[in-house]
Amino acid sequence: MAKAVVGKVAGAGAVPDLRASPNSYRYFDKVNRLVSNEVKVVFTPSGRRGNFPRGTPLLHAARVLGVDIDSVCGGRGLCGRCQILCTEGSFPKHQVVSEVSHLSPFTETERRYNQRKKPLAIGRRLSCHTLLEGDVVIDVPADSQVHRQVVRKDAEHRDIKLDPATRLYYVEVEEADMHNPKGDLQRLLEALQRDWQLLNITCDTHILTQLQAVLREGKWSVTVAIYMQGKITAIWPGFKDQALGVAVDVGSTTVAAHLCDLRTGDVLATASMMNPQIRFGEDLMSRVSYVMMHPQGVVEMTAAIRESINQLIAEASAQINSTPADVLELVLVANPIMHHLFLGISPLELGGAPFALATDSSLDLSAAELELSLHPGARVYVLPCIAGHVGADTAGVILSEEPQVASEMTLLVDVGTNAEIVLGNNQRLMACSSPTGPAFEGAQISCGQRAAAGAIERVEINPETLEPRFKVIGCELWSDAPDFSDKTEAVGITGICGSGIIDVVAEMFLAGIITVDGVIDGDLMEKTPRVISNDRTWSYRLHSGITDIVITQNDVRQIQLAKAALYAGVKLLMDKMGIISIDRIRLAGAFGSHIDVKHAMVLGLIPDCDLAKVSSAGNAAGTGARIALLNAASRTNIETIVRGIEKIETAVEEKFQQYFVEAMAFPNKTDEFPHLFEVVARPISRIISGSAGDSGKSRRRRRRI
Amino acid sequence: MAKAVVGKVAGAGAVPDLRASPNSYRYFDKVNRLVSNEVKVVFTPSGRRGNFPRGTPLLHAARVLGVDIDSVCGGRGLCGRCQILCTEGSFPKHQVVSEVSHLSPFTETERRYNQRKKPLAIGRRLSCHTLLEGDVVIDVPADSQVHRQVVRKDAEHRDIKLDPATRLYYVEVEEADMHNPKGDLQRLLEALQRDWQLLNITCDTHILTQLQAVLREGKWSVTVAIYMQGKITAIWPGFKDQALGVAVDVGSTTVAAHLCDLRTGDVLATASMMNPQIRFGEDLMSRVSYVMMHPQGVVEMTAAIRESINQLIAEASAQINSTPADVLELVLVANPIMHHLFLGISPLELGGAPFALATDSSLDLSAAELELSLHPGARVYVLPCIAGHVGADTAGVILSEEPQVASEMTLLVDVGTNAEIVLGNNQRLMACSSPTGPAFEGAQISCGQRAAAGAIERVEINPETLEPRFKVIGCELWSDAPDFSDKTEAVGITGICGSGIIDVVAEMFLAGIITVDGVIDGDLMEKTPRVISNDRTWSYRLHSGITDIVITQNDVRQIQLAKAALYAGVKLLMDKMGIISIDRIRLAGAFGSHIDVKHAMVLGLIPDCDLAKVSSAGNAAGTGARIALLNAASRTNIETIVRGIEKIETAVEEKFQQYFVEAMAFPNKTDEFPHLFEVVARPISRIISGSAGDSGKSRRRRRRI
């Protein structure tokens, strides 16, 4: 009789086809096991199963079968990560009757774990200290899996598979011995190879300087953090089971840090602040100008951005009673200029053609060399840039949004001073940027302001009366609610922010106050006192108060210029892609989160699309940074994707200018918006012949466009 | 007719066997070449040859054939490293009639090189700008070979094959272009791949911060230094052709730096100084004590040693009008304690059993993290340590002395406060250290002093009269020369150094002043006033002057203890090796350079051996550092050798004590010294029964031992 192979893998994907002779196989299997004193174990949910000698530790059986089960302490009953549950019952499919009594009794080690650490839930065992005494079906709960899923709240996205670049390993190291002279490091490396099969491990110098003291303090038991299964980046005496990482998103305006538990993937704390570089210039180009004017500008600005990151991490770690020295990894996304400044690279070349990046690769650096006050061995991963104006932040958006996995043609737009535009699907990806300017952020708008308390963020205009109502940030009520004045007294009504300006211009257009060409119709002065004359143009008074909020002809022009630039960029990519419609639009970033997508489409800021398929992607860049932090494989993934992206430089594309001019009209001079006008009534528009300033003498007619 | 393969390699080691039909082959070859318009080129000294189309550049032909020929500029006529000579004449063996006229005429580029750089020697051409126009035999002179030999003056050693870890590459990079957006780094890497077939090159952050400015300053032509064919460590605009490296030897007493040209292997400058750690303690153990007593001791001592290295490199580079910023690589050897302190590791564990090293591996570090003021991208290579008391300096000695290549059994001894001992041949290598103490350095000797002006370094004693004569450092005369007093007046006669103490004790023994047991014979007071009584022992007065130089009984005891420790270590290794005689002894270090080997053997400091086979290895540790600097492969080599060495810890070997006791006698209580006593008369010895202090009552007899 053939002897069964002990622990042979017969799990999912490797199940022998026994349908032809199930009974004979089962018979042999049973006899085999009786003769060889073996028992059968089936692991769920993986379905992996095998036979093992009676008395085999469950964790060992799981390892042999390749079952995904966690352990930091290497089976010493310290970490509690290898918990399992025995599923009782009869499983005819596996020919197994599983009972809790088929496992060895609860051990002293488990009792100790129960007391000192978190109590084990009912039925839970430490698989490292549980022996197989009979046939069992063992469930590995999600929290015991190494590669568990980090659940994303957003239903649109796949969960993140947890597989961090930095992992902890507990080892008991052979004591130094004169009879066998070798270095303490070599003894540690031997233990890592013996217990964890880790080979060719190197270490930082700072590990060397503390190694001997730590080994002795921990009585030759230590926990090490290993980066990318290759380099020891941290060491602690004894057992340690929490490793922290931080995902950082450096925007032009805001810097945010999300402190994560690398073991669970949970965001433990978040901190954000205004980008300190605002003192060197509100927008990116003025920061580049600062560098041009000040020889020390790069040094100052690099120090400022690094300092702000240090401050955020100090804040976030204080929230969980930890310190920055516990942070072992940082992943960063940023636009190209912030990316360069963070690295200490002058952004000068990015300020003018040919907009050359110093590097477009991802970067794997030490936190120490970047003057970040994390753990001395902490690593920094910076996502790759795509092109001179399309940065690591856009790579983060792609990592989060995954346009490359579906067949539907997806448009990703991240609007800031520049709009970064990505278009594609699982066949092809393209990217470009377009110089929208800061109008969408409320700058260059007469009453514009940042999105802060007191800013008008929503506007509706009655097309009959031309009377508006609006909401301000900091108050839930519409302006026509009775309590509105009382409720807004504290915050005031101070200006209009990005989403408010989109709303008001779109509503003005829908109400016929502005024409398809973007001219405020002075004739309406006759109909409403809200249209007022300024020299040769007209304005619309949205609100009268301590501050009058007025939309001027120039404000409309600024929005036209910004949205035309964005649309022309999108159009260019569609052209290159050879498509005339888009299946799905995702708007990333703060602006994308707050604008009304219907109004955006009414203005022709984004191309026509089924409105149900247009949505906000939230802080997709930051999410991308978190994915790269929690899943090492995603780094290689995004690096490969970025290399494959076709980069389009709008500045050298002949058609850009034409598309830009066509896109000045609302929503567009040439493109139909069939999906939009299925759900939105076409505005009553006044076509005005002659120039805007010449309206007095012009012939007017009203028509539905 | 078969078409000849263009440029097919048919050089040394790959010559087809044509002896059977030489004429037919030659006929075909000639016809082939006529038909295909090809010419033949033979390179000497490699013997590689092949056929190429008329007009092929010589450098290209050499590359195709794998001829070792240098180039930094990649064939642009800038570096002048690819110079060749055409050998004129008829070479029937190759069927070639070689003429200078078979090469294309002297070009404008060569004329420019001639004017701007060094003039080309007569007949020399730049092979990158010389085309093949007919059959030629081309000689590649040694200075045009990449892997040229660095000649070692010492006839005992093989030359060093030049193959540095850091090499320079000149490239012309594609200009940044909006139509093809990519990072400047990526463009540089593409150029390195295109021109130099270098793949997977990474770069330091400091390269990124200056890359864009350097590329533009050099008008897109740059020279980069690449470390281990993997990492860009330096970048300069335009063409640069000198790379410097430094070999550093940190001894307990002295620190020395040898500044080398990585291209030629020449030592350009040398600087040395007292080890600044002497202020923390004269010997290694007192420096360890300093660390024990002072919590900040490690930091202070690390800073001191790094600062002294910085100072030496500044001095050495100033000698050649260069700066430390030109130094791209540093290789360091040191004993374990200095090794640890250099790295910032506490030497505490090395101060007591089990003498655990933090690491015994070689180290590849950045100079910046070690606070060395070299080029910001400079690399540091530290040779591996062998055991707790056998350091990277001994690895350097092995690299220089190569005991592993010959079949003769070689003993390498490096004497300091500890003696490092290596024994072996091409079959097996062993190492240990033995605690000789500082007696050999003149410490713990009543009139001992360091080897400096005024120290007695040579002594002879007339066995009949028992009168000595001696020499002092700083004067060429023996003390019995008439002018001696005048000539030594300036330096004085201040003490006795290591080689002097070996000489005087050996001569006292040979003259019968001390017995085989090391007792100064008080009876000789009757014969000479130089033997004087001190309480219960006697001394020998070597010199009377401002300072009396006297050898006391305790001085002899110190030498006995030191030499017994050394000999016991050697004996232990011989035992382990299973041998009773040694073929060859090499004494490394300053002490080894100065002692009289015959006297050392008379004392039984080293085992019996053919005296012609005992010699000084000079500063072998420093030479080892230089080899590792100039030949990257030697690093892997010494790492492998060190792993294979059997490390013996004398402290745990039972027999050590016995061998030590036996070795207290001169030359040894049990071991015969047959080779020695073939050339040296056995001393007249007085065996004294009873203790040394009991001589008055003891019975004495004289015999030849």
UniProtKB/TrEMBL annotation, chains A, B:
Q: Give this protein's Gene Ontology molecular function annotations.
A: iron-sulfur cluster binding
**2Fe-2S ferredoxin-type domain ranges (all copies):** 37-144
Fetch the InterPro entries from UniProt.
2Fe-2S_ferredoxin-like_sf (IPR036010), 2Fe-2S_ferredoxin-type (IPR001041), Beta-grasp_dom_sf (IPR012675), Corrinoid_activation_enz (IPR052911), Raco-like_middle (IPR041414), Raco-like_middle_sf (IPR042259), RACo_C (IPR027980), RACo_linker (IPR040506)
* Top-level taxon: Bacteria
Q: Pfam families in the record, alphabetically?
A: Fer2 (PF00111), RACo_C_ter (PF14574), RACo_linker (PF17650), Raco_middle (PF17651)
Which Gene3D superfamilies does this entry report, sorted A to Z?
3.10.20.30, 3.10.20.880, Domain of unknown function (DUF4445)
Task: Tell me what this protein is called.
Answer: Iron-sulfur cluster-binding protein
Q: What organism is recorded for this protein? A: marine gamma proteobacterium HTCC2143
